[in-house]
Amino acid sequence: MRCITYAGETVITTDDVAEVLVDLTAAIASAGRADAVGIPIVFEGTDEVGEAELVIGVGNDVLSVPVRWEGAEPDFSDAAAALRRHPLYPSEVDVVADTTFVDDPDMYWDPDLDGFDRR
């Protein structure tokens, strides 16, 4: 479980939701944007769950730290998957596409066209 600090407040969520939230926050900020998202949270000392609404991206810092948790962890995997579907969430395909041409420009050389094929 992780404790998320945001705007002077803290909430507790699962490791996977916290990881996705941090990655998504960085990606949205990198695009120069901000976006509102909701994450599932657990109220400390209880089994009650709720949702926190956050604006993430440019100008919005998110801190994720481990927290001691006793008992069963809730299953927030659906929420983590929903955050991963955000259009700006980084994917391995995006990273490969961004770095391949820089690392190996000959990869796009097309001998039939007598030059580069810039897709």
TrEMBL record:
The name this protein goes by in its record: Uncharacterized protein
Organism name: Microbacterium dauci
